[in-house]
């Protein structure tokens, strides 16, 4: 039931403080500020290979940044439809992780089976706990997003990201990379996520105005660095899916290697710019696009300095620990797509040509 909401997608966006909280509680002991040991001993894992499709693939890419940074654990992420047919060379000691809301996506399931058949340990990060992937994998890592009805994934995505961030902290602890003091700090940062997500959901006023501008565009660029890069691609996918506007997500530093040629006054550029160690780099990329007449919308915390340059408008995001920025910034990204689609009058919950679960290849 949609209750007070116009669409399931809107309802599911608003459910995210709860779904993230519920998911994190599975992996973290908030009372004692510790990770919960799970069935996988990350000290015995040499590499991680994530396989996934669509939004789950972007969640996997965000996870990769965390596994490498926090746990020093090499991590590859690949689109399942490519992985399954290219005879990948996977090292023994690799933990294969399928990320999927439904647990039924044909290519992801086939990739998981391939990994299992090739002797790898397997884990399934799934929202449907009785799904084919959950049955196929050695270990099930649940997300607790609850049933997701909207075809465009929202709360399943943030639940996947939350679980991967928590697991990366767990891996860091088990591999001796994170001492108890830092563990406490990171668990506390994750504990703050639901509250900050709830704050981000309140950003809707400013975002409606931007959505009005986006609804008139034929192309939109999303930019980010670090974990904001996969989130930029997720933002572009969300906009494409439900508003049918062409959009691309780019690593902000890659722009000058080609895509900046697309920039003109009709192409809005949405920049995801939390105050992290690469903020200054992103800001200077934004000056470059603004100087070429691109209307830039920078989503950043109030405390972030203003990049010099005309044409840069700002949307204030909640201030947050860099670890949880992908969770907090996912909200404005989803709301932008949602309001743009509403403005265009498209069928938000059932976009054309799309199915909720892609069980054939
Ligand atoms: O059920 P899955 O997570 O395996 O589905 C993967 C993709 O089909 C899915 O994320 C798709 O990209 C969504 N429509 C994105 O909003």
From TrEMBL:
<keyword id="KW-0808">Transferase</keyword>
<dbReference type="GO" id="GO:0004360">
    <property type="term" value="F:glutamine-fructose-6-phosphate transaminase (isomerizing) activity"/>
</dbReference>
<keyword id="KW-0677">Repeat</keyword>
<feature type="active site" description="For Fru-6P isomerization activity">
    <location>
        <position position="356"/>
    </location>
</feature>
<comment type="subunit">
    <text>Homodimer.</text>
</comment>
<protein>
    <recommendedName>
        <fullName>Glutamine--fructose-6-phosphate aminotransferase [isomerizing]</fullName>
        <ecNumber>2.6.1.16</ecNumber>
    </recommendedName>
</protein>
<feature type="domain" description="SIS">
    <location>
        <begin position="210"/>
        <end position="351"/>
    </location>
</feature>
<dbReference type="GO" id="GO:0097367">
    <property type="term" value="F:carbohydrate derivative binding"/>
</dbReference>
<dbReference type="GO" id="GO:0006047">
    <property type="term" value="P:UDP-N-acetylglucosamine metabolic process"/>
</dbReference>
<dbReference type="GO" id="GO:0006487">
    <property type="term" value="P:protein N-linked glycosylation"/>
</dbReference>
<keyword id="KW-0032">Aminotransferase</keyword>
<feature type="domain" description="SIS">
    <location>
        <begin position="38"/>
        <end position="177"/>
    </location>
</feature>
<dbReference type="GO" id="GO:0005975">
    <property type="term" value="P:carbohydrate metabolic process"/>
</dbReference>
<dbReference type="GO" id="GO:0006002">
    <property type="term" value="P:fructose 6-phosphate metabolic process"/>
</dbReference>
<dbReference type="GO" id="GO:0005829">
    <property type="term" value="C:cytosol"/>
</dbReference>
<keyword id="KW-0315">Glutamine amidotransferase</keyword>
<comment type="function">
    <text>Catalyzes the first step in hexosamine metabolism, converting fructose-6P into glucosamine-6P using glutamine as a nitrogen source.</text>
</comment>
<keyword id="KW-0963">Cytoplasm</keyword>
